[in-house]
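Please, structure for the following, as tokens.
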Amino acid sequence: MNSKILMQISVLAAVALAPLAAVGQVNSEATPAPQQAAPYKYEVFVGAAYTSIKQVPVTYSGLIGEKVTVGRDWGKYFQLMGSLDYYSKGIGHSYLTNPGHPTIYTFLVGPQVHAEIYEKLSGQIFAELGMEHTGNESMTPNISFAGGFGGGLTYGLTRHFALQLTGDRVAASFSLPGNTPLLGYSTHRTWNARGTFGLVYRF
């Protein structure tokens, strides 16, 4: 008799607990995984810039200006970018009595490869190709094809904002100031070292 009662109690307990076990299994499988924020696709850099000015023999050692870059990410490591630079304030070689008023602007596009180095710090290398203009120096021609390579470091401040430091070397070919048809407007290739520092906005 006692064994019969115990058996009935066991059966009732199993029947009562079975739905709870089933609900527990369903809930554990249906619980959504935490969603990660969608990766950004675009970024804009705005900052201060410096360039040497090797195409002008007697002038400042370099020029200070501004740079704007727009980039589009393709996947985790690759980016296509376009940059516009303008330099007009001369620095260095203060002993010159007449350094002139040279200006430079460039427009360059190219690929970039970037990757995380440590936590919020990432690095990038890039190549670039486009054009460069030298102004106020009576050069003929004063516009040249240009190209170069460089790299940099980016430190994330928030999800959307970061600080970026870059450096590159850009080659272009210009005639000497005051060139004439008698000299055939011959050009000379020069390499300018450049550096930038500024703020990146990602979206």
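The two ends are 75 Å apart (CA to CA). Helices lie at 2-30.
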